[in-house]
Amino acid sequence: MFCPNCGSEIQNDSAVVCVNCGCAVSHRSPTADPAQKKEWETALILCIFLGVFGVHRFYLKDTKLAAVQLALGLLSCFIISSIWATVDFVMLLAGSFKTGDGRLITQN
Ligand SMILES: [Zn+2]
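Above: the input record for the complex with zinc ion. Below: its predicted structure, written as tokens.
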């Protein structure tokens, strides 16, 4: 399983504390979290329609990279940021996209 706080892998499934960040680990199944699914869906939709502006990154609190994505987009007539947004879209689908605070954002 993965730490919900820092996203690092925890080898022992019965662990109660993440050794990486020291946060308590909840044993609630992530599949039972509708808020997380909603967050993933919203990010995916934002990535599709407004991804070239980095809006999905702003939404996921990754403001630093979002600003870089927006700036590169403006400078390159959105050529670079459209490629970047496509990569982000694939990563979101694959469940390997991280939020600004280092959480993996997944469909489940
Ligand atoms: Zn952790």
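Notes for the reader.
DSSP finds four helices and two strands in the chain.
Residues 3, 5-6, 8, 18, 20-21, 23 surround zinc ion (CB under 6 Å).
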